[in-house]
Automatic annotation (TrEMBL):
Coiled coil spans: 45-115
The entry's keywords: Coiled coil, Exocytosis, Transport
GO biological process: Golgi to plasma membrane transport; intracellular protein transport; vesicle tethering involved in exocytosis
Domain Exocyst complex component EXOC6/Sec15 N-terminal: 47-216
Protein name: EXC6B protein
Keyword RNA-binding among record annotations: no
Annotated organism of origin: Uria aalge (Common mure)
Family to which this protein belongs: Belongs to the SEC15 family.
Superkingdom per UniProt: Eukaryota
Length: 713
């Protein structure tokens, strides 16, 4: 058993030795560990020593076998050393020479290296400058644009600088400074552009008057052109206009009315050539600040802020424009300036609406216009109510029409303005009535209440041309002769026609139908007849110093004026082209007016006669206790009868047909005579029945009877 173990140990040691001989030194550790892990390392060492000795003997044998070759090799090696030393010396000498020769080359190479380095640096610098110079140029351009106030191009340059150029050189310090300045530059551009906008708003506020004046001149020129175009077919066709028809009729009179002396004109304050081109709003105002500011704020993303600011400021300006001056009603220029400012404001807004996208919209414009319309109408109602001059009211109407036509040309609804003009028409009629009241008073006060004498045919035709009078008997009479009426008849008739003309002037350009114009004229004329002229006639009739002769002449005059009413009807029909038979046509009340005046004159005659009779009766001095009567009638009664005879002789001038319901001529004379006789008889009876007469004699009664018989005769 022990032998078997010894054999295994020996075999193991042999294996380990072979492994040590064949294994790399670095990997021998595990092999040695297996020796020391066993218990036979002593025997292993013996084996190892034996193996080493064995190898030594083999090495010695090999060395002995190759010794001569080794000696020969050493000898050759010594020879080689000598040659190598020579070679070394040669190499050293060559190296020294090479070093000496290469020093200049090294210096040149160093210089070349430095040049190459400099060249590379310069190239890099050029490349960097190529990137930086556009940035600096753009920044310089930006500053120049800012300095020259070209803010929108400056903003575009700023955008290019920020998004295109600066990102390429963002790592440089000066670029960081630029980047930090960009928000400040933007803010500066915003502030400067806003300042320009404020200047623009202030400028258009000051120049709204001129802009509006220009726009209204354009509208006036367009209206004149339209009128020329519309009248051309009538001219070429040989037809007459309304005014020509009136001029050619036998009812035409001279322009003696105060209204005809100064026809109103809206834009005739300057003598301008009709063909001269009137500049538009864009020619008077530089809108570029608005456009620039709008673009700038749009680019900066603050468009909504800009729109709100612009609209807010323009609303404030609108309120200022719509506030009329306190003395606007005093002159037409006050109204004109007020309208010019309003038109100028909305012309600018309309231009902004059509040249910008969304800065203002139609809803905003309509809102402003509604406010302006209400305030304008309220102001006109207030201030026009102070106006008492019909010429100024007519001029104001023409100005309002031009104002409305101008704004209508820009698309604004103006129906309310024309409705308001119908209200002003009532006021205009009142001012006309007041003015014609003065005209009628002057005519009636200056009249001599005597028939108009005619010395020759020329004067006769002139009066017949002024007043529609036809009398075959009078025409046959030789000159000189007299018209039955006094001068106030043709004058009043002509002034009624002038009043109608004045009413017609107001109706022009109001877009009214012929029927509406006719109705308006007839209503106003009726007021003139029934109120103004009637009151003037009544005042003349009721005057204290009016005589019976004047009253008789008034009766004659009103009779002829009454007959002329049908000619006034025809006159209105000619200028309105509306036949009197048309439905709803208003009739003239002139007949009633003149009848009432005539009746008032008749009553005044009766009253005056009775007063005169009373004055004569106050002279009666009866002696109620007289024993014998006188030989003739009392002196007071003789004088009274003489007065009545001369008075009734005046009535022979009265026309035969004074009342359309009576065929009796001299009705007024008969009625006056009956009234006087009745009043005289009543007064004589009262003399007998007075309380103071307590007793009377037969002689007194006989004298009283003589007076009564004288009255009967």
């Amino acid at each position: 058993m022990a032998e078997l173990e010894s054999l295994e140990t020996a075999a193991e040691h042999e294996r380990i030795l072979r492994e040590i001989e064949s294994t790399d030194t670095a990997c021998i550790g595990p092999t040695l560990r297996s020796v020391y892990d066993g218990e036979e390392h002593g025997r292993f060492m013996e084996k190892l020593e034996a193996r080493i000795r064995n190898h030594d003997r083999e090495i010695e044998k090999m060395c002995n076998f190759h010794y001569q070759g080794f000696v020969d090799s050493i000898t050759e090696l010594l020879k080689v050393r000598g040659e190598a030393q020579k070679l070394k010396n040669q190499v050293t000498d060559t190296n020294r020479k090479l070093q000496n020769e290469g020093k200049e080359l090294i210096i040149a190479m160093e210089e070349l290296k430095q040049c190459r380095l400099q060249q590379r640096n310069i190239s890099a610098t050029v490349d960097k400058l190529t990137l930086c110079l556009p940035v600096l140029e753009m920044y310089s351009k930006l500053r120049e644009q800012m300095k020259s106030k070209r803010h929108y191009p400056a903003l575009k340059t700023l955008e290019h600088l920020e998004h295109t150029y600066l990102p390429q050189v963002s790592h440089y310090r000066f670029c960081k400074i630029m980047v930090d300045n960009i928000p400040k530059l933007r803010e500066e551009i915003k502030e400067v552009s806003m300042s320009d906008l404020k200047d623009f708003l202030e400028s258009i506020r000051k120049h709204s008057d001129k802009i509006g004046e220009t726009a209204m001149k354009q509208a006036q020129q367009q209206r004149n052109l339209d009128n020329i175009v519309s009248q051309h077919p009538r001219i070429s066709g040989g037809k007459k206009s309304k005014k020509e028809v009136c001029a050619s009729s036998d009812l035409e009179v001279k322009n003696t009315s105060p209204m005809s002396e100064q026809d109103s004109g809206i834009l005739d304050v300057e003598d301008e050539d009709e063909d001269e081109e009137v500049p538009g709003a864009q020619d008077l105002v530089d809108f570029s600040p608005v456009y620039r500011c709008l673009h700038i704020y749009s680019v900066l993303g603050a468009r909504e802020t800009f729109e709100n600011y612009y609209r807010k400021q323009r609303r404030k300006q609108a309120r200022l424009v719509l506030q009329p001056p306190s003395n606007m009603h005093e002159t037409l220029d006050g109204y004109r300036k007020y309208f010019n400012q309003i038109v100028g404001f909305f012309v600018v807004e309309d231009h902004i609406l059509h040249t910008t996208q969304g800065l203002v919209n139609r809803a905003y414009i309509d809102e402003l216009w509604e406010m302006a319309l209400s305030k304008t109408i309220a102001a006109l109602r207030t201030h026009s109510s102070y106006c008492s001059d019909p010429s100024l009211v007519l001029d104001l109407k023409n100005l309002i029409v031009l104002f409305a036509d101008t704004l209508q040309g820009y698309g604004f609804p103006v129906n309310q303005l024309f409705d308001m003009l119908l209200e002003i028409q009532d006021q205009y009629s009142e001012t006309l009535l007041k003015k014609w009241s003065g005209v009628f008073r002057n005519i009636l006060d200056s009249d001599n209440y005597s028939p108009i004498p005619v010395a020759n045919e020329e004067v006769y035709k002139k009066i017949v041309g002024q007043f529609p009078f036809q009398d075959a008997e009078l025409e046959k009479q030789p000159f000189p002769k007299k018209f039955p009426f006094s001068e106030f008849v043709p004058k009043v008739y002509n002034q009624i026609k002038e009043f109608i003309y004045a009413c017609l002037k107001f109706s022009e350009d109001l877009h009214l139908s012929s029927t509406e114009v006719d109705d308006m004229i007839r209503k106003s004329t009726n007021l003139l007849l029934t109120r103004t002229l009637s009151n003037c006639l009544q005042n003349v009739i009721k005057r204290k110093n009016v005589g019976l002769t004047e009253l008789v002449q008034i009766i004659i005059n009103t009779t002829h004026l009454e007959k002329s009413c049908k000619f006034l009807e025809e006159f209105i029909t000619n200028i309105t082209n509306v036949l009197p038979e048309t439905v709803h046509t208003t009739k003239l009340y002139g007949t009633t007016t003149f009848k009432d005046a005539r009746h008032a004159a008749e009553e005044e005659i009766y009253t005056n006669l009775n007063q005169k009779i009373d004055q004569f009766l106050q002279l009666a001095d009866y002696d109620w206790m007289a024993m014998e009567p006188g030989s003739r009638a009392s002196d007071y009664l003789v004088d009274l009868i003489g007065f009545l005879r001369s008075t009734f002789a005046v009535f022979t001038h009265l026309p035969g047909d004074v009342d359309v319901h009576s065929t009796m001529s001299g009705k007024v004379a008969q009625t006056a005579c009956m009234s006087a006789c009745k009043h005289l008889s009543t007064s004589l009876m009262q003399l007998l029945l007075e309380a103071e007469v307590r007793q009377l004699t037969l002689g007194a009664l006989q004298q009283f009877n003589l007076d009564v018989e004288e009255c009967e005769r």
